[in-house]
Amino acid sequence: MNADTPASGIRYVAIGDSFTEGVGDELPDGVVRGWADLVAAGWADSLGRPIEYANLAIRGKLVRPIVDEQLEAALALEPTHLSFNGGGNDMLRPRTSIRDITDAFEQVAARCAESGVQLILLSGANPSAQLPLGGLIGRRGDELSAAVLELLGDRAGVITALNWPDRALTHPSFWSADRLHMNARGHHRVAARVLTALEEQAPDAWWSLPVAEAAPVLARGEYFREHLAPWVRRRLTGTSSGDGRRPKFGTWVEVAPTT
């Protein structure tokens, strides 16, 4: 626990895209959970007392809309901690410069510092081994990861929980059928990394949950039809999978310890 945390306790808000919203880690009722929800639960368990948690992330968002639409709303909640990840959707657009993405990271870091909020900086995991044009995506991700590390990796007051370099997370057993979003196994491993970076106790099992029954491996045509074609259509029509969606936790919810 940060020594500067006020007596009122931990107030943790997450901003980002589908990675932070939790897409790929769907509960039986269809509600997405994801690593940020798991961090909130694990944090409360580690502390042995409730924390407050909000999650403003919206799937499909590019990094600039994340900053423009979510950052100030998150800071207005007066959190003690804010987690940020973005750029994964931008990285799939070759015309987007790495500098444009890192400028957004710099803005988040600067505003958190000005507001006295502890920034938790994440990178997403690397899905490129199983994607079309995986080589290009992998190179773009390597470049972005290196640029963010150079900018913020050693900055005082920034906690880093980096998943892109984690080679274990490239294995298909950590990914959902769309090959772009992690499944429950992947989200638990990310949550364990965040809690460890916070110097809190993560359940050992979260690092490598048992492998669930594998999703059917789709033939190339089926994969393109079910997962790639909808993405292409959204690009062509200028729409997003997050259009019209609201944050799942737009204001504080209390997360109590389970033990």
UniProtKB/TrEMBL annotation:
Residues 14-188 form the SGNH hydrolase-type esterase domain. Pfam families: Lipase_GDSL_2 (PF13472). Keywords: Hydrolase. GO terms for molecular function: hydrolase activity. It comes from the Bacteria. InterPro entries: GDSL_Rv0518-like, SGNH_hydro, SGNH_hydro_sf. This is SGNH/GDSL hydrolase family protein. It comes from Microbacterium radiodurans.
